[in-house]
Amino acid sequence: MPLEKFEAMLKRTMGLDVQSIGRPMLERAVHERRDKSGLDDLDAYWLLLQMSEQEQLHLIESVIVPETWFFRNREAFNEMVQLLPQRLVSASLPLRILSLPCSTGEEPYSIAMALLDIGMPPQHFRIDAIDISPQSLAIARQAAYGKNSFRGDFLAFRDHYFALNEQGYALSETVRQQVCFIQGNLFAPGLLYGEAPYDIIFCRNLLIYFDRATQHQAVTILTQRLAPEGLLFVGPAESALMMQHALTPIKAPMAFAFRQGAPRQDAAKPAPAAVFAPQPPARPAPRSAAIRTAPSKARSAADSPPLPQATLAQVQLLADQGKLDEAASLCEQLIQRHGASAAAYYLMGLIHDAGDRKQAAADCYRKALYLEPAHAGAMTHLAALLQTQGDAAGARLLQQRARRSAENNPP
């Protein structure tokens, strides 16, 4: 049985563009779920999918590979607390914040820790965290994490808010009670029906899984849920898309933040500590992990798996010889075998570019930026593609980011 029906179902139910994950991953997920369901063929499994919403969710969870950790892309949390005094001028307490998709909870809990660290009283903010995966939400509600959820050099928050036990690092109840987890689909008509708009929305690294039309639909839904002049944080590879909507970029390198509404002059940012008077902690509190300055390199080496350089060189050699299809196939095998990496996706993008497969090239450059936000090569080539597609504003934004990346990370 061909996989087109399964592709169409995933597109209909969750907006997934199968090209974003690759058909081999879809094929593997479908066969794994068929085997776990105890069925002999894909026709029988297809019938099961039509009858079981639970099995649809299992298949969705099989094709979604959550990759998250606490204070991922730290600059977004920095900017959130810096902009908070301006946001409170037009917001009514409690401050309403949305994290979607929230995956296994690291992002919404990071938001809560960042706000608590600047002295915001718990009763002054509420975080709704939404994800399509019941399995991810179960992990989030349990709030016990392994070492992979703590990356980078700034981990003082772990000592302050977590206790190590037999299950891992257990999050304190003070943080847990600030987050309400909800199982839901961004495209479900009744999602958040009747809820007041949100002052801040984090929707990072979701849009890269959609085709262009679905991306614009998703951004429209998000802006409808955003309060006037509310703040929207997106992923590194998604910022160019925001320029095509009524959103104004905030001048904060690597934060990928946008404001609802037309451009206006930003007032000077007051220090967050002047807004709330923190209560003296029972023990000395470490400086907030959210407001530390990250090292000059945007990502540590531990953030992505090691690459077999000899294999990459072989891919490059095939491409240089004009064997683009062979090079693309080998590069895809590399990603499947060793995991996603910015270097591999960037090389795949160059191969598609050379083969005049512009949309596939753009998708690969976006994935490279998802894994390495400061990848200047991916930014430059994606900007060139956007320029040819008539998206001058998006191209200009990426070019500016590429220049900043080169200045901040000299060779």
From TrEMBL:
Gene Ontology molecular function: methyltransferase activity
TPR repeat residue intervals: 342-375
Keywords: Methyltransferase, S-adenosyl-L-methionine, TPR repeat, Transferase
Keyword field contains Methyltransferase: yes
Domain CheR-type methyltransferase: 1-239
Stretches for region Disordered: 269-306
Full protein name: CheR family methyltransferase
Taxonomic path: Bacteria, Pseudomonadati, Pseudomonadota, Betaproteobacteria, Burkholderiales
